[in-house]
Amino acid sequence: MRKQEKVDKTIVVPGDLLSDDAAKAAEGTYTENGKVYSLIYGLADEREKIRVIPLSGKYLPTIGDVVIGMVSDISFSNWKVDINSPYEALMHISEYPRRIESSEMAKIMRVGDLAIFKVVDVDQSMKIELAPREGQLRVLQSGRVVEISYTKVPRVIGRAGSMISLLKDKLDVNIFVGKNGRIWINGNAADEELAIKAIKRIEKEAHTSGLTDRITKFLEEEKHGVYEKR
Amino acid sequence: MNDVIAEIRKDYIYGLAKRSERADGRALDEYRPIQVEVGLIDKAEGSARVKIGNTQILVGVKLQPGEPFADAPDTGVIITNVELVPLASPSFEPGPPNENAIELARVVDRGVRESGAIDLSQLTLPDGKVWIVFIDVHVLDHDGNLIDASALGALAALVNAKKPSERYGYGPDEALPIKEYPIAVTAVDLDGEIMLDPSLDEETIASSRLTVISGLQGTLAGMQKSGTGTLSTEEIARIVKLASSKAMQIREEFFGGSTDG
Amino acid sequence: MEFMKNGKRIDDRLPNELRPIKFEVGALERADGSCYVEHGGNKVIAAVYGPRAVHPRHLQEANRAIIRYRYNMASFSVEERKRPGPDRRSVEISKVSREAIDPVIIKEFYPRSTIDIFVEILQADAGTRSAGINAASVALADAGVPMRGLISSCAVGKVDETVVLDLVKEEDNYGQADMPIAMDVRTGEVTLLQMDGHLTLDEFEQALELGKIGCASIAEMQREALIQKYRGEENE
Predict the structure, then answer these.
(1) CA-to-CA distance for B78 and A46, rounded, in angstroms?
(2) What is the CATH classification number for the domain harbouring A75?
(3) Residue-level pLDDT at A226
(4) Residues A48 and A118 in one domain
(5) Do both A74 and A131 map to the same domain?
(6) DSSP 8-class letter at C50
(7) Is the same domain home to A203 and A162?
(8) How far is the CA of A102 from the CAs of A72, A92, B23, B125, C173, in angstroms?
(9) Which of chain A's residues have a Cβ under 8 Å away from the Cβ of B10?
(10) In this predicted model, what pLDDT tens digit does every residue of B92-145 receive, in sequence order?
(11) Cα C77 → chain centroid
(12) How many folded domains does chain A comprise?
C-alpha cells in the first residue's frame, strides 16, 4: 500500500452534479436547468470553471495536433493513415515536400510504416487531413512505438515538459510524444525498455499525485539494477 | 477487419527472435501465466474458465439424453462448438461461426475425441438413448493462442462435469468417465526460432503455426498446421518433441492429482 | 406454487429487496470498456468498442454515431442447452436494450462512427436484460463515452398478489406479472418498459414506484464500482 498516492481530484461519473452555477461549465460537462453535470467518467477539476478530465476514450484530432500515424492503405493520390482515432486520416501526395508521381508513393511510405504528421484540417464530418510536420516527413525507421490512452498524454509530458525531461535526462533515449497517445522511443535498447516501463507506469498512475517523485525513484532503482546485472 | 502491425513492431519482434528473446520477456518455450478455474457456471454440468496471459475463454459442458448415431448405437456423442463473440476482439464480427471458429472447434473436438478422453462406451443409457456431450467454448478476450486455451478449458470442464442422471430419472449423478488428458501446445516459427504459446503479435506476424495435441504417454492425438507459411520437416519434428514434453508439464500442473489414479 | 410465506419470498428476501449484486469494471483487456456483473444467479459480461469506423459503410450517419447492441446467451447459460446464435427473443431484447441506453449517449460528438455494445449472458437466472443494461451502461462509461447519465435497470412483478422487486426464475416463470424497467435515475426518465401478466392500475403504480427504488440502489452501485476502479489501483 502506498499511502502517498492520493487522488487529488474527485472521480466523477456521467450525470454527477458538479455545480449549481451554469457559468462554471467547461469541457467534459453539460448544463441542465442552470446546473452543471458531468458528461463523462473522469476527474473533476475545479478552478474558475469546472472541467472533467477523461480517464479513457478515443482520440479526436484538432487542427495543429502532432501525431504518430501508421499508413494503412495507399490510393491514387492519398496515403490513408491510422491515427489511433475512430477516423482515418489522409495525407495528399501534394503535401509531400517535393513533387512525386503516384507510382512513387509506396517508396516513400509503405503500408505499416509509422511517421510523424501534423493535423492540418478537420472538417465537420471528421474528414482529417495531414501533412508532414515542419515540412519534413519523418518516417520512423528504428526504435519502438508504444500506445497509451491519449488522455494520459499530458501526464507523460508533465508540467512544462518536466516528465519528458526527466526521462530523457536519466535515460539514453530520444522520446517523441504524439498527441494521439503514440510515443516513439529511440536509443539504447535497454534504456528504450526502461522508458517504456516508466511510460506504462505513468499511464497507470496518471490520476495520482506525487508521480514525478515515484518515477524518479523508479528510474534510479531500475538503472541501478541494469548496471548491476552487467 | 484485420489487425495491421506496424513495420517497426515486426522488425522489433524479429530482431528479438534472432537473439532468442521475446517482447514480453518470456523464454521461447515459456507460456504466459495460466489460470484454470472450474465450476463457475452452475447451469452447466461442467465449466471452466482458462486465462493464458490476457487471453480468456469460458467453456461450458452440457449433457442431455439423445439418440445415438445409427452406425454407433452403443457410444455417446460429442458435439463441440466455439463462439468467437465480438466482445472478445475488435476483429471479431457478429454472425454465424466463420472458418476460424469452425477450425478451432474442430481441432478441440478432435483432441478430445481421438485421444479417447471420454470413454464413450460408458455413455449409454438403459432406454437405448445415449448422453450427448455438448462442449461449448465462449471466447471472452482474444490476446493470442486461443487453441491451447480452448483445449485446456474443454478438458478441465469435462473433468469438472457430472452426468445429470437424476434430473432425467437415470439414478444418481456421476462424474464423466475420463480416460485420457489431451493437452494442446501451439508453436509458431519466427525466423527459425520456435516459440510456444504465441502472443497475439507473434501469432499475427508468424505466417504459420502448428498445434500438437498429445496424451498421457506422450503419444499424439491430433495436429493442425494453420496459416499460409511453410514448415520444414525438421522444424515440425522439433515442435512435436517440444510440444509433447511441454504438455506433460501442463498436465501435471493442472491435472496431476486426477491422472495418478 | 406458494411464493410468499410470513412476508418473505422463496429465497428469503423481502418484497422490496434486491438480490446480491456485484460489479467489476474493466474485466476485459481488448475491449475499450467492459464490465462484469453478478446479479443473483445471473453472470453477465458487457464490452464496448468504439466509437469506431462503421462496417458496412452504408450504415453510417453523416452527423452522429450509431449505437449497436447485441445481447447474446451462451449455450450453457440455461438449464436446457440453447442453440448458439440469435433467436427472436434475443433480437427483441437487443433492440429494447439499445433503445434503453441510446437516449443518454451524446452521439453528435462522433459523426460517421459506431459505438458497439456486446452483452454476453454467461449464466441466466431471470432479469438478464436488466443485468445486461446495467453492465453495458458501466462499460460505456469505462470506455469514456460521453453520456448525460448512467442507465439503471431492474424488474418488478407480482407473486401471490404481492408486488415484488427483482424476480428470481421461479417468480418470473410462475408468478402473476413481470415488468422490467430501465431509467436515468437522476431525471426519472424511463427508457425501457415492458410488462407481461396481470396488474391492476394500483398495482402498476406500486410496481413502478418499487422499480424506481430498485434502479436507484443499482445506480449507486454502478457509480461506486466505477469510482472503485481508480481507488483500487491506488492501493495496489
Answers:
(1) 61
(2) 2.40.50.140
(3) 55
(4) no
(5) yes
(6) E
(7) yes
(8) 16, 10, 36, 72, 67
(9) 112
(10) 999 999 999 999 999 999 999 999 999 999 999 999 999 999 999 999 999 999
(11) 16
(12) 3
% of chain B with per-residue pLDDT over 90 = 94
- Give the C-alpha separation, A183 to A67, whole Å: 9
What CATH architecture does domain C21-234 belong to? Answer: 2-Layer Sandwich (3.30)
Q: Which domain holds residue A29?
A: 10-54
- Neighbouring subunits of C (3+ Cβ pairs under 8 A): A, B
User: How is the beta sheet containing A182-187 ordered, strand by strand?
Assistant: A144-147, A182-187, A173-177
pLDDT, tens digit (0-9, with 9 covering 90-100), for C18-54:
999 999 999 999 999 999 999 999 999 999 999 999 9
Residue B66 burial by Cβ neighbours in a 10 Å radius (0-12, 13-18, 19+): middle
Nearest to B49 by CA among B138, B135, B113: B138
DSSP H helices, chain C, are: 88-101, 128-142, 169-174, 201-234
C-alpha C151/C-alpha C138 separation (Å) is 9
**Beta strand residue intervals within chain C, DSSP E:** 21-25, 33-39, 42-53, 66-73, 113-123, 151-159, 162-165, 177-184, 189-193, 196-197
Last-in-domain residue among A118, A139, A160: A139
Whether complex ipTM tops 0.90:
yes
- Residue A46: inside a domain, yes or no? yes
CATH superfamily, region B13-260? GHMP Kinase, N-terminal domain (3.30.230.70)
User: Do residue A126 and residue A159 come from a single domain?
Assistant: no
Lookup: cell for A11: 472521480
**CATH number, domain containing residue A211:** 3.30.1370.10
Q: A45 pairs with which residues across the strands?
A: A51
| DSSP secondary structure letters along A43-73 | EEEESSSEEEEESS------TT-EEEEEEEE
Is the minimum CB–CB distance between A190 and chain B shorter than 8 Å?
no
- Confirm or reject contact between C173 and chain B (CB < 8 A): no
Q: Is residue A59 part of a domain?
A: no
Domain boundary among A79, A112, A139: A139
Q: Could you tell me where the beta strands, DSSP code E, fall in chain A?
A: 10-12, 17-19, 29-32, 35-38, 42-46, 50-54, 66-74, 78-82, 88-92, 114-122, 128-132, 138-139, 144-147, 173-177, 182-187
Evaluate whether residue A1 is within a structural domain.
Answer: no
Domain boundaries, chain B: 13-260
- Tell me what pLDDT residue B154 has: 98
Measured between CB atoms, which of C33, C63, C141 is closest to A13? Answer: C141
Residue for grid cell 474442430 = B106
For residue A40, the domain's CATH number is: 2.40.50.100
Residue A143: closest CA among chain B residues belongs to which residue? Answer: B8
Question: Does C70 touch chain B if contact means CB atoms closer than 8 Å?
Answer: yes
Query: According to the 3-state scheme, what is the secondary structure of chain B?
Result: CCCCCCHHHHHHHHHHHHCCCCCCCCCCCCCCCEEEEECCCCCCCEEEEEEECCEEEEEEEEEEEECCCCCCCCCCEEEEEEECCCCCCCCCCCCCCCHHHHHHHHHHHHHHHHCCCECHHHHECCCCCEEEEEEEEEEEECCCCHHHHHHHHHHHHHHHCEECCCCCCCCCCEECCECCCCEEEEEEEECCEEEECCCHHHHHHCCCEEEEEECCCCCEEEEEEECCCCCCHHHHHHHHHHHHHHHHHHHHHHHHHHHHC
> Which ranges constitute the DSSP H helices of C12-107?
88-101
Amino acid at A172: D
Chains A, C: CB pairs < 8 Å:
99
Q: Which of B60, B86, B89 is closest, CB to CB, to C70?
A: B86
User: CA–CA separation, B85 vs C133, rounded Å?
Assistant: 18
Question: Do residues B224 and B111 make contact, with C-beta atoms less than 8 angstroms apart?
Answer: no
- Rounded CA-CA distance B69/C138 in Å is 47
pTM of the predicted model as reported, rounded to 2 decimal places: 0.94
Q: Which residue of C has its CA nearest to A38?
A: C148
Rounded Cα–Cα distance for residues C217 and A96 (Å): 58
